[in-house]
Amino acid sequence: MRRRREGALGKIVRDGKVLILAYDQGMEHGPVDFNLKNVAPEYVCEIAAKGGFTGFAVQKGIARHYKENYSGKVPLVLKLNGRTNIVPKDAAYSPQVCSVKEAVALGADAIGYTIYVGSPREAEMFCEFGRIEEEAHDYGLPCIVWSYPRGMHVPNEKDPAMVAYAARVALELGADIVKINYPGSVDAMKWVVASAGRCKVISAGGSKQQDEEFLQKVRDIMAGGACGLAVGRNVWQNEKPLEMARKISGIVFG
Fold first, then answer.
1. Could you confirm whether 37 is annotated as catalytic?
2. What does the pLDDT read at residue 8?
3. The pLDDT of residue 1 is above 50
4. Under CATH, to which class is 10-252 assigned?
5. Per-position b or e across 113-146, b if 16+ CB within 10 A of its CB
6. Could you report the per-residue pLDDT of 108-134, keeping only the tens digit for each?
7. Which one from 79, 179, 217, 247 is the annotated catalytic residue?
8. Which of 15, 209, 217, 234 is deepest in the core (most CB within 10 A)?
9. 177 vs 19: CA distance, rounded Å
10. Residue 65 CB-density burial (10 A; 0-12 exposed, 13-18 middle, 19+ buried)
11. Strand ranges (DSSP E) for the chain?
């Protein structure tokens, strides 16, 4: 019988902070996010390995096929569900595509799971994550929830009140870390963090921005009390990704 170890954050948190390089966009957004350089997983794995990140978030195919490029160099955050951008947003559901057992076999240091709060299929995702959370914590794996308000009942998924609600849902469901969309201001972020209680809050990096504009957003995220970010396009779409990673890390880790 495995010993239950809830909230064992292990390698994912460093000095109380989290900085994850996200590379699950290939499924979530399609090749539109890539160019001939960053479409190659080897290229982004190298950034993850050298960029000072506390986690590298990918789907199981990337984890399996490119293990030698990142294993032992950066902790693995394995996404257990995913969807394409082809299905309309109103049909907000991200089905499970990987088991906790398979994540453990692939050497995961944490699991990730997306929940669309307010979706007509919210109940399915709650039940699915409930089983995942119990099994992952039995293995001592922390659970990171990508918690996004989305679906036909959500008129504005970036509404700060909705973002705070999504953060609270992750706490109530037993997540160790919740990833939310930046709610737009330092004060709004403070309310999101308060709503999440002891569940650590990280912000999504979002679409590619000008460097200084994005770095100011990182400062605001941290000023709002978040413990870090899960950033993708603003690093591996950058012409100097490791330099950008260093600048982000300097803000996050102080």
1. no
2. 65
3. no
4. alpha beta
5. bbbbbbbeebeebeebbeebbebbbebbbbbbbb
6. 999 999 999 999 999 999 999 999 999
7. 179
8. 234
9. 12
10. exposed
11. 18-22, 55-58, 76-79, 110-117, 143-149, 177-180, 200-204, 228-231
Q: Where are the domains of the chain?
A: 10-252
**What is the tens place of the pLDDT at every residue in 169-205?**
999 999 999 999 999 999 999 999 999 999 999 999 9
Give the number of residues written for the chain.
254
Predicted TM-score of the model (pTM): 0.95
> What pLDDT was estimated at residue 91?
81
Q: Is 35 exposed, middle or buried (0-12, 13-18, 19+ CB in 10 A)?
A: exposed
Answer yes or no: is pLDDT of 163 > 50: yes
Is 20 in contact with 48 (CB distance < 8 Å)? no
Residue 197: which of 234, 239, 161, 225 has the closest Cα?
225
148 given a catalytic annotation: yes
**Cα-Cα-Cα-Cα dihedral sign, residues 150, 156, 157, 161:** negative
Q: Which residue in 148, 182, 200, 247 is the catalytic one? A: 148
Q: Which helix (H) or strand (E) holds 216?
A: helix 211-223
Structure token digits, residue 226: 């978040």
Find, among 202, 162, 159, the residue nearest to 19 by Cα.
Answer: 202
Q: Greatest CA separation found in the chain?
A: 51
What is the amino acid identity at position 95? P
> Is the confidence at residue 7, as pLDDT, over 50?
no
Rounded Cα gap, residues 132 and 141, in angstroms: 10
Mean pLDDT for 34-40 is: 97
